[in-house]
Structures are given as structure tokens and as C-alpha cells.
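C-alpha cells for Halobacterial output domain-containing protein. Go.
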Amino acid sequence: MDQTVLNQIIGAIAGEEGVDPMKLDISLQRHVATDAIQDLVNHESDAWRLQFETPNHVVEVTGNDKIIVDGTHTSTVLNGS
């Protein structure tokens, strides 16, 4: 089953909190333009980095397929998912 990058970000945040992603009480849309994340992930160049804050975390998604939560690399983006 393919995951979208948004699901991967939620999973990375949940992993940082030690909870099941389904039990995570967060809406990414309140903190970042989610369409922009998907557009960046699908972009030809990997020379980008997007950082945003949620109430409890700093999340970074990079053009080299990384998701970093609170400074810790937690996941690799499945490009084009």
C-alpha cells in the first residue's frame, strides 16, 4: 500500500510521540499548505527544504527524501507517492 507524503509526515510525528498515527490529534492543514508539500515532493529538483511548526514539533521535509521531526531523521519520503 502506497502512503502519501502527508501520511508519512503524520507517521513520523506519531513515531516521535510514541503513539499510533490514528490516535494523533493533529491536522497538518492547520500548520502548512499540504498541497505545497506534495508539489515539492513531485518537483524535478531536490534542492529544497520545507520546515514548519506544529504545536509540539518542528517538522522538516527535504528534497533529498527525508522527514525530520525535532531534529531527528525519522522517515524517508516515498517519492511520487
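The CA atoms of residues 65 and 77 lie 5 Å apart.
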